[in-house]
Amino acid sequence: MKKEQDNQRGFYRCDIQLPFSFSIIKGKEVIGPYIGQTLNLGGGGMCFATACPLLQPGTLFLAEFQTPEKGEKLPEGVLPGNFMARVIREEVGGYKSTFEKRYRLAVEFKFPHKASKNDIVAYLNRYEAHRKDKS
Question: Measuring CA to CA, which residue among 12, 18, 89, 4 is closest to residue 44?
Fold first, then answer.
């Protein structure tokens, strides 16, 4: 895993690919779920790819990473939880596949509590330590 430079918000980003689902919030309506995959992740946001054409700058959505069943421990490499996010921009050079267009979007997390940011940073620290142990 390559560590990227700090972004303008002061959080480092890790190149990491995690699948997640998300639902778009439009007023009182919730649209989805759709599927996405992180390309990089940090305490303040992420860049991800999706086939969903509905996201544009300013769109709010709820990113839903895997949540364990009661009493179940998640396997290594899984980030649990739900995170509110807002699309900042569509990145140039969206991904294309044989079957469908892939959009590449940069988002910032909108946290009601600092604990959510700490959860992501703690997860990334564990992830990096685990990768170093395997090297």
Answer: 12
SS3 content of the chain, % helix, strand, coil (to 5): 15, 40, 40
Give percent of the chain with pLDDT exceeding 90: 32
Instruction: Quickly count: other Cβ atoms within 10 Å of residue 93's Cβ.
Output: 7
- pTM metric for this prediction: 0.74
Domains, the chain, ranges and CATH?
Answer: 13-69+76-134 (2.40.10.220)
**Would you call 79 exposed, middle or buried from its count of C-beta atoms within 10 A (0-12, 13-18, 19+)?**
buried
Query: Please, which residues bridge with residue 126 across strands?
Result: none
Closest to 12 (Cα-Cα) out of 45, 59, 34, 38:
45
Phi, psi (deg, nearest 5) at residue 62? -110, 115
CA-to-CA distance for 66 and 3, rounded, in angstroms? 24
